[in-house]
Known about the structure:
The chain is built from 9 helices and 10 strands. By secondary structure, the protein is of the alpha/beta class. It has 2 domains: 2-254, Rossmann fold (3-Layer(aba) Sandwich), CATH 3.40.50.150; 257-288, no CATH class.
Amino acid sequence: MAKKFVDKVVCRDTLKTLKQLPDNFIDIGVTSPPYNKKENNKGWLVNKVMYSGATDNLPERVYQNIQVKVLNELYRVIKEGGSFFYNHKIRWERGKLFHPMDWLRKTKWTIKQEIIWDRKIAANIRGWRFWQVEERIYWLYKPKGNNLIGKELKSKHALLSSIWRFSPENNNPHPAPFPLTLPLRVIYSVLDDKKNGIVIDPYCGNGTTLVAAKILGQHYIGIDISKDYVKYARERIKNYKQEISKANEEMSKHIVRKTFKERKKNGEFVGRHRRGTDYQGVNQPSLF
Ligand SMILES: C[S@@+](CC[C@H](N)C(=O)[O-])C[C@H]1O[C@@H](n2cnc3c(N)ncnc32)[C@H](O)[C@@H]1O
């Protein structure tokens, strides 16, 4: 019965759809939900981000309650030892700050890590605050028994560090897509030694996560309420091979150039933070 959802993009409300999935069924998920941007209100929002099939304008308390329900359904359907990556950001409404932790702590998930996504560009056009160039990605973990920590990442993935620097996607008709790099990095790192796992994106938009899953030899389940985005995602998955070179670019960053032992032996950089270099001592392009 649950098989009918596998390798499908479902056009429906996500909470209703998640309720139809069995317990402990999915390996990993990645998403960027609607952010409750309050289109048509004055404030921090970016006007042009408007979805084709849903408004994004709920009282904040209602919005956060829905997010808790969705995240708890995801907790149920994801396997023990599985992960969910939740991309969100800090927002303000009339001077009041809303932090994703406000509702993440109300869910069943163990919060494993907060990753900073440096988008290298700000959505702000005014200077009420320092320009916000970052979003957050929360690594949520469903413990196996009493073990709240889970499996160790291979070094080639862990070395990418907790600050991710890449620009948002600008070659996609969806108003708020994330770049292929984001779900690809997540799935490649966490599901490295598994093929044919199941990846879910409960707000899949134009299908970026689903394409990443397909390229990496995983199955996918996508859910989005917009007919337009679902249609686009289905077509995009058919043509996934066109995005393999972009995926290879990301995967080429997952390498250990020299082991810690080799660097130590040669008296080279051994891993503490050094300005202008990554954690393997290689020069990074400067930001501005
Ligand atoms: C930030 S976008 C996700 C974009 C996606 N990561 C991509 O790369 O295309 C959020 C998505 O949530 C969808 N959405 C909003 N409310 C929804 C609901 N109740 N159920 C399912 N999808 C919904 C919107 O249509 C939108 O595509």
